């Protein structure tokens, strides 16, 4: 029975085209058909139908012409919904990139009302900012959850916005259970969110007319919110911080997804963000696994042993290096000369060593050869060179007396 009645209604529908302005002065139905397939560069593109009028008008959005015909029929639902719809003189209707057709009905409420309708396709900076905000929340959530500035500023912002919910909740406690007003407060959260949305849509007009009251409200509620946050203080428990971090990251993913108009690209960006954020863990795990596999497969090569000649040369080099370091320390200001001399048996021999003389005597080298073998060839050469030079410089009347004496204790 409904179909013949709808078929009997004759509608004059204006098919809208992009970037073309339509001027009207009567109630009119219009539709826009999207024929372009979205590309990857349309991720931040928004299609909007703008209705700008000289006086207040009521705009109703539907999916197709059949829904427009249903609006022309009288029904209880249409009657009540007409009172709930906002009456504005500048309305924006968002059109999805994948929607094939969008229709709207513009109803004028006063005579001599003129309005214009235009369809625009443009880059939306708000979508880009929403995406950037979500990106920041996701990658900086762990830092923000530990920041005191973020804690207090967020607490004040939430307090200012949520105060409308608190006021409605308190008013509902004073309402009698059988009052008709209580029916309005059923599902109070939805009604409160609707009021908040209505306030934000008309925020510019409210600020222009009632800026004194709005400023007083923001300062009062903001101070109360700051006091509550200051009383409880920032989060210190590690688990609470982790919960806040995960919440911020989840909100960031939601903002990133809602900031991109193409769903499959938005889903891909979310997956890439998740992989990038947690990439260090699988990469580190793969690196450890690779190192273990390499160690298990490669053959262990025993270290090469030194030959007797290499061992002797290395000992000579390290000994000579250690003696040079000892001479440098003895000549440095860090060495206490008097304390060092008081602890040694032969101060003159120590002084000669510091000045560059060899650290062993001929008798000490001979004793070492008798006990341990041939001894050090390099030490013998240096010792004999030093001895021969001393004999040449010495007075022949006084023979050289060699003694076995260790100058270091």
UniProtKB/TrEMBL annotation:
The keyword Repeat does not apply. It is a multi-pass membrane protein. It is found in: Nucleus inner membrane. Keywords: Membrane, Nucleus, Signal, Transmembrane, Transmembrane helix. One of its GO terms (cellular component) is nuclear inner membrane. Belongs to the NEMP family. This is Nuclear envelope integral membrane protein 1 isoform X2. It comes from Camelus ferus (Wild bactrian camel). The gene is NEMP1.
């Amino acid at each position: 029975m409904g179909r013949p009645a709808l078929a009997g209604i004759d509608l004059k529908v204006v098919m809208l085209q992009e970037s073309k302005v339509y001027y009207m002065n009567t109630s009119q139905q219009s539709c826009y058909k999207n024929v372009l397939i979205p590309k990857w560069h349309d991720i931040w593109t928004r299609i909007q139908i703008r209705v700008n009028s000289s006086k207040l008008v009521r705009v109703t959005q539907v999916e197709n012409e059949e829904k427009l015909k249903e609006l022309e029929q009288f029904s209880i639902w249409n009657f009540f919904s007409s009172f709930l719809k906002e009456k504005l003189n500048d309305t924006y209707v968002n059109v999805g990139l994948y929607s094939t057709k969008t229709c709207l009905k513009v109803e004028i409420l006063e005579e001599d009302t003129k309005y214009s309708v235009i369809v625009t396709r443009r880059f939306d900076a708000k979508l880009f900012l929403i995406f950037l905000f979500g990106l920041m929340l996701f990658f900086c959530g762990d830092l923000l959850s530990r920041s005191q500035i973020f804690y207090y500023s967020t607490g004040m912002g939430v307090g200012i916005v949520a105060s409308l919910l608190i006021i409605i909740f308190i008013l509902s406690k004073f309402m009698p259970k059988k009052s008709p007003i209580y029916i309005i407060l059923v599902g109070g959260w939805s009604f409160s969110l609707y009021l908040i949305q209505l306030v934000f849509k008309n925020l510019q007009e409210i600020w222009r007319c009632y800026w004194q009251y709005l400023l007083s409200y923001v300062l009062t509620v903001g101070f109360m919110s700051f006091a509550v946050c200051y009383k409880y203080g920032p989060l210190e428990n590690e688990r609470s911080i982790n919960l806040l971090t995960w919440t911020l990251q989840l909100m960031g993913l939601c903002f990133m997804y809602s900031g991109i108009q193409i769903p499959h690209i938005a889903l891909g960006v979310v997956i890439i963000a998740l992989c990038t954020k947690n990439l260090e863990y699988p990469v580190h795990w793969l690196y450890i696994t690779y190192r273990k596999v390499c160690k298990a497969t490669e053959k262990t090569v025993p270290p090469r042993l030194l030959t007797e000649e290499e061992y002797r040369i290395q000992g000579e080099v390290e000994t000579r290096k250690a003696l040079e370091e000892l001479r440098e320390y003895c000549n440095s200001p860090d060495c206490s000369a008097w304390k060092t001399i008081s602890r040694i048996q032969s101060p003159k021999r120590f002084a000669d060593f510091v000045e560059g003389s060899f650290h062993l005597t001929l008798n000490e080298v001979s004793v070492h050869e008798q006990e341990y073998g041939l001894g050090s060839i390099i030490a013998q050469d240096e010792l004999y060179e030093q001895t021969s030079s001393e004999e040449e410089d010495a007075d022949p009347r006084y023979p050289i007396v060699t003694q076995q004496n260790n100058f270091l204790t």
